[in-house]
Amino acid sequence: MAERKLDGRRALVTGGSRGIGRAVAIRFAREGARVAINYNGSRVTAEECLALLEEASAAAGVEAAGHFIVQGDVGVEADVARIFAEVDRQFGGIDILVNNAGVQTIEAPSETADPKDIERVLRTNLDGAVYCAQAALRRFLAQGQGGVILNCSSVHEIIPKPGYLGYSLSKGAMGNLTRTLALEYAGRGIRVNGVGPGATLTDMNAAWADDPEKRADVERHIPIGRAAEADEIASAFLFLASSDASYVTGQTLYVDGGLTIYADFAKNWSS
Ligand code: NAD
């Protein structure tokens, strides 16, 4: 049997019951990891995800992997404390944190955007990632064996997103969260990286993904010519979580079909 890349590793994936988080969790389970799935929406969806993880582990030859689901809002400090206490209880520690939980802002011109809406997005996408990173770091330091933090960012870490100020702010700041923590903890065996997905087929994009005309309109802007499957994003998380990336820290890996290479310059218009 091929070597599994995450044998025995203990991972927490926030907002991991569907979409990109679910794809990451399944990929990790296939590679031998034990995965805690945090969810804040439907318990039924989380239970479905858990069943898929158990299947993935069994298919990989891992018996009684011990995955579990844990409810909680990452934007609430007390919930994050409870989520990590459950990870301590069930896994006795943690090796990999995936800050995946995220929400979009409602589209609005920035001059009239509701500050409460901006705040709501920052609370989940940024505060949530910070609270979870702090909780993971304290454990990594106490365990003394290093650790990995992976932030699910976006192409909007570097591409502005007019009309979505909260989202844009949250992902821009996530880039500095990745780099700052990477630098602060590099000497202690802790690696911190980000993955920046482009347009990916998940519930977050249901407004265009399920409408052929709108989807074609989106895909027209993507150099590779199509949106991503969540599993294609999960590949980057696996790479960065594994020892294949043992010398990589402080980076955001854009998995975006070429969105961040200036799609508009594919044909010359400037000279
Ligand atoms: P999704 O809506 O399917 O998943 C988001 C998950 O986060 C859901 O399970 C949701 O319940 C959970 N969540 C939201 N608020 C939470 C909270 N306060 N506490 C705990 N969980 C919470 O969408 P997705 O596309 O899978 O998004 C996952 C991540 O990928 C997000 O951070 C998103 O910004 C990022 N991303 C997505 C795309 C895309 O095109 N889909 C592109 C770039 C980045």
Mean pLDDT: 97
| Count of discrete alpha- or pi-helical segments spanning 4 or more residues | 8
Proportion of helical residues: 40-55%
End-to-end span in angstroms? 56 Å
Q: Count of DSSP E strands? A: 7
Are there runs of 5+ residues with pLDDT below 50, and where? none
Biggest sheet features: 7 strands, parallel
**Structural Rg:** 18 Å
The backbone outline, from C-alpha atoms, is globular
- The proportion of residues in beta strands is 5-15%
Taken in chain order, the helices and strands follow as EHEHEHEHEHEHHHE
Description:
The chain has 271 residues and is α/β, with parallel strands linked by helices. Helices cover 44% and strands 13% of the residues. A seven-stranded parallel sheet has the order 3-2-1-4-5-6-7, sandwiched between helices. The longest helix has 29 residues, at 115-143. The chain starts with 9 loop residues before the first strand and ends in a 16-residue tail after the last strand. The chain binds nicotinamide-adenine-dinucleotide (NAD).
Keywords:
single chain, alpha/beta, 8 helices, globular, binds nicotinamide-adenine-dinucleotide
Short description:
The protein is α/β, with parallel strands linked by helices.
